[in-house]
Amino acid sequence: MLIALWILNGLLALAFILAGSMKVARPKPALVASGMAWADDFADPTVKLIGAAEVIGGIGLILPLLTGIAPILAPIAATALTVVMIGAIVVHVRRKENATPSIALAILSAASAVLGFLVVL
């Protein structure tokens, strides 16, 4: 189970760190122009905060397990990312946009949380 957790967390961390860093680094008009039309509904600091939460959550999936310091934080990070993705699903459904990527990330994050709690506890 530990190997499955590492693979799942590694892929999730990669996805969240890349997506979050793009939201933090790029200005809101550039995000909207690149297909993230949902960003137009939020203030610029809110978009940056969402990106920062994704980056921190992605790091939280890996770093505690890697260092062995407070490994319980990895499934907690996965739970927090699940909540972020549920919010993303709500936004995409309200805007009548494709919510499939957010749904997939929410399911995988929830699976990581369950698996992480089983392995850590």
Automatic annotation (TrEMBL):
GO terms for cellular component: membrane. It holds the Pfam family DoxX_2. It comes from Microbacterium allomyrinae. It is found in: Membrane. The chain crosses the membrane at residues 6-25, 72-91, 103-120. It comes from the Bacteria. It is a multi-pass membrane protein. InterPro entries: DoxX (IPR032808). This is DoxX family protein. Keywords: Membrane, Transmembrane, Transmembrane helix.
